[in-house]
């Protein structure tokens, strides 16, 4: 396999990154992808910063072993807390995701913007910097989406429990005058139809899958890594979940992305990815500063 025909590695704490995967496949249909759902350790939003950095390093090391030519961290929480350390440790192009603060501030007519994100993203310096840079003229209403990822990982993107949580989290934003809501987790992009059912067109919903796909395209060009147009693209789905329910949910959501139809269902490979003491030591040493270290793969 030539390096250009090697896959793009994409990881998320679970199913949420499928929204990014969908955008990448639409933009780059000739690229092969290995998608890694770390559902065995989801949700990341309640984990410590050091754990998120160590876990992200372990997943990246595994994707490097699968010959990934590029990494997409399709998780807002992992991007916020780990991407600097990943970029200083691994020698491959790395693309992250972050809340769409700038487009939200530009889209808002009322000047009130809601942010629905994980607790870890909401406490991050990166989000504070984005808000100060792009939305200092807006009133921002933040809400941690406790429980949303857990339901999505079980395959529940609608239903009474999901409806109750979304109403509890978004109704105060509506009452505060928000006309735009940032979906600050790739998981939450899967809830757009449900939010529309509950709130109609009350909010402009901001998610960044298409922007990430364009960035991936740009970096592939910059590094000369585009697959040939006649390359037979493949999609490999992997999960760390021991529980079959998240794996079944991943297969169900990903089936249309795999180009399957009828009764066919996407295959999901269960993988065991252990963290090492070195991952935690490096996470503690590097922190969010991203101090340079020797690349682990290239």
UniProtKB/TrEMBL annotation:
**Would the keyword Kinase be found if you checked this record's keyword annotation?**
no
User: Which residues constitute the catalytic centre?
Assistant: 75
- GO annotation (BP), single: regulation of cell shape
Q: Which domain of life is it from?
A: Bacteria
Which residues take part in binding substrate? 12-13, 44-45, 76-77, 186-187
Q: What is its EC number?
A: 5.1.1.3
Q: In which pathway does it act?
A: Cell wall biogenesis; peptidoglycan biosynthesis
Q: Pfam families from the xrefs?
A: Asp_Glu_race
Report the catalytic activity.
L-glutamate = D-glutamate
Residue ranges annotated as coiled coil are none
The record's section on InterPro entries has: Asp/Glu/hydantoin_racemase, Asp/Glu_race, Asp/Glu_racemase_AS_1, Glu_race
Q: Per UniProt, which keywords does this protein have?
A: Cell shape, Cell wall biogenesis/degradation, Isomerase, Peptidoglycan synthesis
Record's PROSITE patterns?
ASP_GLU_RACEMASE_1
Q: Name one GO molecular function term.
A: glutamate racemase activity
Its function, per the record, reads: Provides the (R)-glutamate required for cell wall biosynthesis.
Q: Which family does the entry's similarity section mention?
A: Belongs to the aspartate/glutamate racemases family.
What is the protein's given name?
Glutamate racemase
UniProt source species: Trinickia fusca
- Underlying gene: murI
């Amino acid at each position: 396999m030539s390096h250009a025909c090697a896959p793009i590695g994409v990881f998320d704490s679970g199913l949420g990154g499928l929204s990014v995967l969908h955008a990448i496949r639409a933009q780059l249909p000739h690229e092969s992808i290995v998608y890694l759902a770390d559902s065995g350790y989801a949700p990341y939003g309640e984990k410590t910063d050091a754990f998120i950095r160590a876990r992200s390093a372990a997943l990246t090391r595994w994707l490097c072993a699968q010959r990934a030519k590029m990494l997409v961290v399709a998780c807002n929480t992992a991007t916020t807390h780990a991407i600097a350390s990943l970029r200083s440790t691994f020698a491959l192009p790395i693309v992250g995701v972050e809340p769409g603060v700038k487009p939200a501030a530009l889209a808002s007519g009322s000047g009130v913007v809601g942010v629905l994100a994980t607790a870890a993203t909401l406490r991050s310096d990166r989000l504070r910097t984005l808000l100060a840079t792009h939305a200092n003229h807006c009133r921002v209403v933040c809400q941690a989406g406790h429980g949303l990822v857990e339901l999505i990982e079980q395959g529940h993107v609608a239903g009474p429990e999901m409806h109750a949580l979304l109403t509890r989290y978004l109704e105060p934003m509506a009452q505060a005058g928000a006309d735009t809501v940032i979906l600050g987790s790739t998981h939450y992009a899967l809830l757009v139809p449900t939010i529309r059912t509950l709130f109609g067109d009350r909010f402009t919903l901001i998610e960044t899958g298409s922007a990430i796909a364009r960035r991936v395209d740009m970096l592939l060009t910059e590094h000369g890594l585009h697959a040939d147009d006649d390359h037979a693209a493949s999609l490999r789905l992997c999960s760390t979940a021991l529980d079959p329910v998240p794996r079944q949910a991943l297969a169900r959501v990903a089936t249309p992305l795999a180009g399957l139809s009828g009764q066919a269902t996407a295959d999901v490979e269960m993988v065991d990815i252990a963290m090492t003491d070195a991952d935690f030591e490096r996470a503690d040493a590097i922190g969010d500063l991203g101090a340079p270290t020797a690349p682990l793969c290239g």
